[in-house]
């Protein structure tokens, strides 16, 4: 997976690119339907699948967080608010593969930027695994600590430029 980080005066961006052995329609279904998304991110659901439609992040012991769909173009892109940030998935066909690009923006006020970036990297790998093998990754097998450290070091390098 290709990773890139950048920042501006307001916050930090993460861009992830991964090639998946699957077609855009199948991958888009995993990104844009409750049935699909819950296979790799069980806490998410869609209420209304359209621009300005609602999605929810289910939290144990707390009220669900409401999110708004910001982009939706069948088999091409879906984006939504993510707390005080935004995320967007873009799909592009390649020869016998699909390139999935994930773009996330989090303002500096977001409380756990590194943890969130790491979580989305895990989810991107999990989407690839589901499409190619039929099974999501097990979070217990993922080395979140070393990923957190690597991301933190990379973002610090970006800050020092």
UniProtKB/TrEMBL annotation:
One Pfam family it belongs to:
AHSA1
Residue ranges constituting the Activator of Hsp90 ATPase homologue 1/2-like C-terminal domain according to the UniProt record: 25-132
Which family does the similarity line name? Belongs to the AHA1 family.
What is the recorded name of this protein?
SRPBCC domain-containing protein
What is the source species? Answer: Staphylococcus equorum
């Amino acid at each position: 997976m290709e990773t890139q980080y950048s920042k501006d005066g307001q916050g930090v961006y993460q861009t992830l690119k991964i090639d998946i052995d699957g077609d855009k329609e199948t991958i888009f279904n995993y990104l844009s339907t409750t049935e699909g998304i819950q296979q790799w991110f069980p806490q998410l659901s869609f209420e209304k699948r359209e621009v300005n439609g609602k999605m929810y992040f289910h939290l144990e012991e707390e009220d669900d967080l409401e999110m708004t769909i910001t982009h939706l173009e069948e088999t091409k892109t879906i984006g939504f608010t993510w707390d005080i940030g935004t995320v967007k998935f873009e799909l592009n066909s390649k020869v016998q593969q699909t390139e999935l690009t994930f773009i996330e923006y989090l303002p500096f006020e977001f409380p756990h930027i590194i943890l969130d970036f790491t979580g989305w990297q895990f989810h991107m790998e999990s989407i690839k695994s589901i499409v190619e093998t039929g099974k999501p990754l097990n979070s217990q097998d993922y080395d979140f600590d070393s990923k957190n450290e690597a991301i933190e070091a990379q973002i610090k390098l970006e800050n020092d430029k």
